[in-house]
Amino acid sequence: MVKHIVMFKLKEKTAENADKLANALEGMQGKIESLRFLEVGRDFKESERSFDIALVTHFDDRKGLETYAAHPVHQPVIALARELCQPTVVVDYEI
Questions:
Q1: For the whole model, what pTM was predicted?
Q2: Class of the CATH-defined domain 2-94
Q3: Domain assignments of the chain as residue spans, ordered by start
Q4: Per-residue pLDDT for the chain (95 aa), expressed as one digit of tens each?
């Protein structure tokens, strides 16, 4: 299994921006065949080190992650994240 975790820090931290990104991320559920698990979490601590939103996804293998990365449902979500967030951090690992 491959886990793909992304953390997002909003450029402009508003409820509207957080909702827009979280809804877009959650909207991928069930629309990308290789995406086996999707979880979106919002930070409640709001510390200086905190990121605002986290995405945790699971795939069967690296090929599934590659399929997800290039998928047309994922592409507008990437564009929205780039528009609303800076920085983002990513980790991909196999378990």
A1: 0.95
A2: alpha beta
A3: 2-94
A4: 999 999 999 999 999 999 999 999 999 999 999 999 999 999 999 999 999 999 999 999 999 999 999 999 999 999 999 999 999 999 999 99
